[in-house]
Amino acid sequence: MLNYQEVREQDAELLRRYYADCNYGLCEYSAGTKLMWREVLHPMWAEAAGCLIIRNTIDGKVAYDYPVPGPEGDEDAALTLIENECMETGTPLAISVVPQCRAAELMARYPYVTVSNIRTWKDYIYRAEDLRSFAGRRYSGQRNHIKKFRAVCPNAEFRPLTAEDLPLVEAFWTDYEAEFAKGDNAKARGELELAKKMLRMLDKPWFVAGGMLDGERLIALSLAEKCGETLIIHIEKALYSYTGVYPAMVQAFAQAFGGGAAWLNREDDAADRGLRTSKLQYGPDHLGDKYRFQPHSELEYHVRAIPTLTTERLTLSPLTEEDIPAYNALVLDGERNRWWGYDDVAGLGGPVEERSFFDVARRDFENRLAVNFAVRLDGKLIGEAVLYRFDYRGSAELGCRISREYAGHGYGTEAFAAAAEWGLYGVHLTRVVAKCFKENEASRRMLSSCMRPNGEDETFYYFEKRV
Questions:
Q1: Together in a domain, 251 and 329
Q2: pLDDT tens digits for 307-317?
Q3: How far is CA 398 from the centre of its chain?
Q4: CB 456: neighbour CB atoms within 10 A?
């Protein structure tokens, strides 16, 4: 399992190790967004495979950012760790705000996946030079507004803001709230409070901030963060009573801080009509796509009910309530299950009741996490075969156990081979994998008879069967 920590203000420096050179170009890949929206996104961070892994929880649902690699980062390994975590916890896998430059890789990675790219989420991306110069006919409106602003405020000037300017910023908020047109809008009010908190971080070296002053009065301000080739504008505020101050501020800020950037990201419009109109008027080069990938297992597409499989001597079929006593005896045989590799009792997370294991197997199939076959001889349950750990990429793991009184007759091999064949051709998997403890010679012989060896480590021998 990945070792997560909550995103706190003191973690921003670590996040910046990854975000400083990140060229995904989206606002979510910045320390500022993680800090500003942490009460909404509830982000947790971990470092693994040389990558920054962020797990968000939004409205109770988990969604991962695409991994951000460091200098020696392995994105494929990081994605595998995320997938394994979801398989272990039974959490639906969702990788969100995926930049366009990584979308094709995920499309190739997941054979069954739902992809969305919602308009409301998209960031407005501008060429830095366009906002520095406002050149050409399409920016005539901005130039005219700036002329009007300069006619009224000829002495207004832009300058960087530092921690020493906090009293000036606090005075600005007082003036701003007096003019705030959305004071009765809870969402806008919440965003304003978050902006205030962010402007108290002017001492942080990864933020740049600037303001337009009319004499000693601060009338507009912005705060941004450079990530790769993109300057991400986290906050833009101005007093509405100063006509033309917004385009004047946008241009001055781009001139002051956008020199080392190819792009300026002014973030999304939050489905606000006024914001959308305004951001479009500044002529974005493109909208930053944010793809959401929700991979699925083959079970969800191809298996509506657990089938009945037949072999020369056995039948593999769904568990029934009549099987509960025999199934409990199979699962609770601790000596026999020392090679099973999973503690069924501990996995319950509570006391063992008569229906506990049966209900777990039933829920796992309802959620399309696993298929538990009852292995039957002359109609009697003598074991089980379980297809589980669907890895979202065409593979699943298979395990089989037979009651001790029926061991030694080849029933496990027969049941295992039938379940593996069904996994490949009934579930449409590309690969079925299995493992056994190195001390378990009987299992090694059984797996070797119907699968190919696929490596080993200190604990297990690994096997696979492909189409």
A1: no
A2: 999 999 999 99
A3: 27
A4: 12
Task: Indicate if 14 and 60 belong to the same structural domain.
Answer: yes
CATH of the domain at 427: 3.40.630.30
What range does the domain containing 165 cover? 123-267
Both 409 and 435 in a single domain?
yes
In a domain? residue 383: yes
411 and 391 assigned to the same domain = yes
How many whole angstroms separate alpha carbon 320 and alpha carbon 425? 25
> For residues 121 and 216, is the Cβ–Cβ distance under 8 A?
no
Between the alpha carbon of residue 463 and those of residues 83, 84, 268, 402, the distances in Å are 20, 18, 48, 19
What is the reported pTM?
0.91
Structure tokens at 168: 């000036």
**Cα 55 to chain centroid, rounded:** 6
Three-state DSSP state, 224: strand
Checking 355-359 for CB contacts under 8 A at 24+ apart, the result is 355/324, 357/327, 357/328, 357/331, 358/319, 358/321, 358/323, 358/324, 358/327, 358/328
Q: How far is CA 170 from CA 46, 163, 164, 173, 466, in A?
A: 35, 12, 12, 5, 65
User: Last residue of some domain: 97, 122, 147?
Assistant: 122
What CA–CA distance (Å, rounded) separates 281 from 278?
5
216 phi/psi in degrees, rounded to 5: -95, 5
Number of C-beta neighbours around residue 209 at 10 A: 23
Residue 345: C-alpha distances to residues 140, 177, 243 (Å): 72, 58, 69
- For 143-194, the pLDDT digits (tens) are 999 999 999 999 999 999 999 999 999 999 999 999 987 666 788 888 999 9
* Gap between the Cα atoms of 97 and 117, Å rounded: 9
